[in-house]
Structure formats: C-alpha cells, structure tokens
Recover the amino acids of this structure.
C-alpha cells in the first residue's frame, strides 16, 4: 500500500489505475480509523479492483466551538489498519494542499441540514460538501462508501452527487455495532464506566420506537414520546434530540408512512453520541 500527500501524486496513481482498466472504490475519512471505517474499506475492497482512502481533517467543517487542533490524529496507525482491510492507496494531504489560501469558492447546502445534527452545527455540512466536491473531482471514483451511523451526512452526500452530477455511485453501509448494540464510535472511549453501561440504551430506545411502528403506530409524536421516556428512564444522559423524519429528505411527517429515519443524539459527560434506525412503512 502506498501513501501520497499531493494531488499531483494522487492523479498519477489514478491515471495508472484507469489505464490498467481498474475500478476504483473511495472511502473518505478524517482518520483515526475505527471499526466502522474498516467496514467501509473492506466493503470497497470486495466490490472494486482498487481502494483509495483519504485521511484529511477538514477545517471547514469545524464550528467556532469545535477544536480542530484537538481532533485525534495517528496516520501510522491508520495506515496499518487500512492496509489490513485491503486499501491500495492512502491520500493524506495537508490543509495547504487542499485549500491553497482563502477559498475562492465553497459549496452551500440548502436542504437536509435544518434537522438532526445540522440544527446545532451551522455550516458543518457546507464544509463537508466542499471537501467532498474537491475529492470527487480529484478521485473520480466508481463507487464511494459512507456509513449509515451518520445518516444525515449520507442523505446530504446523496443530494450532492445527484445535484452536481458526479458519476460516482453512493454506497451506504449499515452501522457497525458492539455486541450490546452500541454504535461503534471513537467517542465511546470518553464514556465513564457507568455511562458505557447505559449507552446501549440509545439503540434499545430506537428499537422500541421501531417496534411500535411495526405494531401499527402511525403517530410520530407517540413514537418520539416512547423513545424519549425510555432514554430518560435508562440513562443519565441529556437528550439533544429525538426525531422521526422522512428519509432522505429529512422533513417532518404528520403520519408514519414511506421511508423514514428515527434518530437520536444524547450527551454524556464527555461524549455526544448519535444513532439511528431507517425503516420503510406504507
């Protein structure tokens, strides 16, 4: 596996792959890889001749109260983990390489941002869309892989690909979980021992909501109330949001019908955790 740090080097390798007739799978990340990322890489490897993983901590998606400098980084560890899953190339550019001075142009996302995490992270998805636009143009992958743990990001990437006519196919991979159901996340290490015991209740609460819908509940408010009550009873965390929305449009619904997302975000002492379930009911 090779690591390149410049766009010119990356384009040379991609040109080589194309001349060889190789298909390219792409996994964009901010590094500090965990099992969720590794599932994306292994999925890409199973479906493509070559797999490119980008590792870039994107400053444009950090808000004023979010510490870009404190974001965890360990490129050597990431290289080793990515190689074990079959990655062929790591693209690890500097900020200066990706943003040569003050940006001339950025991407503004107008839909699917005023809900879930987007409500409290103004400008975050503009930063995500801007860096992905750059990366999709540079890599021109056949298929790009994202995890459904951040289902809002997947919905926004889907809209970005459709609206800007990128030729890449979006592949959304199901959330990787611990044995007790907790969604895998680098933030889980910040939980106290007692919080770690409580955290699986997030997925259990969402599963309760899904069960109510499967049993015929059609009122979104009743589902949200049940999920909220479960979390309040079984965890010490504060609830950021519990939402039941259409998916991928992320609009409120008056009645349960069609493709939906039931999502939650909760705040423990030093960790904010998100999780979701998508479902389709007629």
């Amino acid at each position: 596996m090779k690591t390149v740090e410049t766009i010119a080097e990356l384009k040379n390798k991609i040109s080589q792959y194309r001349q060889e007739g190789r298909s390219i799978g792409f996994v964009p990340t901010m590094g500090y890889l965990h099992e969720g990322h590794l599932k994306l890489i292994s999925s890409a490897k199973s479906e493509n001749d070559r797999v490119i993983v980008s590792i870039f901590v994107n400053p444009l998606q950090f808000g004023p109260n979010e510490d870009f400098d404190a974001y965890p980084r360990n490129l050597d560890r990431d290289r080793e983990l990515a190689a074990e899953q079959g990655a062929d190339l790591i693209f690890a550019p500097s900020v200066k390489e990706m943003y040569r001075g003050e940006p001339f142009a950025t991407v503004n996302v107008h839909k699917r941002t005023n809900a879930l995490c987007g409500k409290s992270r103004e400008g975050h998805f503009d930063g995500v869309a801007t860096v992905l636009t750059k990366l999709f143009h540079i890599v021109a992958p056949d298929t790009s892989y994202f995890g459904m743990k951040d289902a809002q990001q997947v919905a926004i990437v889907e809209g970005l690909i459709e609206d800007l006519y990128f030729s890449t196919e979006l592949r959304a991979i199901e959330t990787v979980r611990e044995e007790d159901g907790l969604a895998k996340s680098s933030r889980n290490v910040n939980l106290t021992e007692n919080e770690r015991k409580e955290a699986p209740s997030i997925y259990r609460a969402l599963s309760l909501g899904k069960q109510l819908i499967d049993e015929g509940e059609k009122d979104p408010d009743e589902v949200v109330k049940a999920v909220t009550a479960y979390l309040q009873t079984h965890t010490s965390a504060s609830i950021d949001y519990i939402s039941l929305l259409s998916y991928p449009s992320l609009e409120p619904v008056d009645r349960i019908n069609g493709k939906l997302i039931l999502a939650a975000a909760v705040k423990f002492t030093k960790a904010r955790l998100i999780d979701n379930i998508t479902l389709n009911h007629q």
Observations:
- Strands lie at 2-4, 24-29, 50-55, 89-91, 143-147, 169-173, 238-246, 258-267, 272-281.
- The chain has two domains: 2-173, 186-276.
